Automatic annotation (TrEMBL), chains A, B:
PANTHER family: TRANSCRIPTIONAL REGULATOR, MARR, TRANSCRIPTIONAL REPRESSOR OF EMRAB OPERON. Residues 1-28 are annotated as: Disordered. InterPro entries: ArsR-like_HTH (IPR011991), HTH_MarR-typ (IPR000835), Tscrpt_reg_MarR-type_CS (IPR023187), WH-like_DNA-bd_sf (IPR036388), WH_DNA-bd_sf (IPR036390). It comes from the Bacteria. This is MarR family transcriptional regulator. Gene3D superfamilies: Winged helix-like DNA-binding domain superfamily/Winged helix DNA-binding domain. SUPFAM superfamilies: Winged helix' DNA-binding domain. The lineage of its organism: Bacteria, Bacillati, Actinomycetota, Actinomycetes, Kitasatosporales. Keywords: DNA-binding, Transcription, Transcription regulation. Residues 47-183 form the HTH marR-type domain. SMART domains: HTH_MARR.
Length: 194, 194
DNA sequence: CATATTTATTTTACTGGTGAAATACCTGTT
DNA sequence: AACAGGTATTTCACCAGTAAAATAAATATG
């Protein structure tokens, strides 16, 4: 856990501990099921369906994010820095701070800070661009690249382990539905910003 | 980029912009699909399945969280404060700061700060408990309760709207799978903390 | 019943994010 | 070529969170 997130609950007001009657899952009750049944009791006329979805989404991600960090922090990296490194690795080209910011959905200021850190640690290099002297071209150092290449398989194995309780079919359904949702949200919200 | 959350990418190192071949969704390509195909190009031997799931989860939540806030901020509330209020509302009883912290998955210190704010705004009241003078009993004021009762339907309608692009079947599948995942994660990770 | 331990909450010092302003540079227009 | 406007990045002041220490009260133990 440690450093970290704190990203809060979800749906339309969540947070809970234990299970009680719901209607969407079917095995053991999850935290959100209890929240839903509480609402059903105090405000029975509300349609809480969005909470069943969004609340669970949010809580899953909150839990995953605590968990996911484990292999990272072992290397003294936080998730946002890791994301910068993996972005550079998979794009496989020099990138500017602005591109990194857009790709990682971070603010410019945040990227500036992360880059300072990563440079100090010798994982990333910056080179002033020849044609546009406002921008910097960033690249992984050999060490940065080696770190990611070493860390990524561990990270993936760890994540795979976290999901291993779902069946293959569940994982692929989940991927597919989330992909649709993501496209919808990108369309609706992506437009509002960049 | 501008305003913003900053909640970062997902899977095992994400962040992207545009679509390219994947294998899990089927309609238009989402951001994560592009990330996956980039990895396939530079590290073809990696099994990126966890990223397909976790990356999408994380990104959906990041987008939803930006979006979700809208009705709240209109009332000058941030999500964490809203969560405190909704928790009190749906539990429908006096609660202590510690209980609120556990329910909302926040640290004690964070709750202390939020309560100070909510008290100042006259939305929450604290009463020193008779039997245990270490604790405070918190309750919504009439105003706090009215605010939540007014806000919650808007919030739910707004969230419902965000999900309206999915079919009823997709939403309920999503709920069900996430419920299973949540139970798994709670078991595995919930144990590590409280 | 005194004292050690545990539990509840707040305080403190600090960190990493944010939006807005500052800085530096490019580009298009006249 | 001068300059208005736009874009890239960093700096700034600030805020909300965190972990750990401080405070205070309950409970358990000898």
């Amino acid at each position: 856990m440690a450093a970290e997130d704190g990203r809060d609950a979800g749906g339309a007001g969540d947070g809970a501990k234990d299970g009680a009657g719901d209607g969407s899952g079917d095995g053991a009750k999850d935290i959100v099921a209890r929240v839903l049944s509480q609402w059903r009791r105090v405000r029975p006329e509300l349609d809480t369906e969005p909470m069943a979805v969004i609340g669970r989404l949010t809580r899953c991600v909150a839990l995953l994010q605590q968990a996911e960090e484990a292999p990272l922090v072992r290397e003294g990296l936080a998730r946002p820095e890791f994301d910068v490194l993996t972005t550079l690795r998979r794009e496989d080209r020099e990138m500017t701070p602005g591109q990194i910011a857009r790709e990682t959905f971070a603010s410019g200021a945040a990227v500036t800070k992360r880059l300072r850190l990563l440079e100090e640690r010798g994982l990333v290099e910056r080179r002033t661009s020849a044609r546009d002297r406002r921008v910097f071209e960033l690249s992984l150092t050999a060490e940065g690249r080696a770190l990611i290449d070493r860390l990524l398989p561990d990270q993936l194995a760890y994540e795979s382990e976290l999901l291993s309780g779902l069946t293959e079919a569940q994982r692929s359904d989940l991927s597919a539905i989330l992909s649709d949702l993501l496209v919808l949200l990108e369309g609706r919200l992506g437009g509002l910003r960049g």
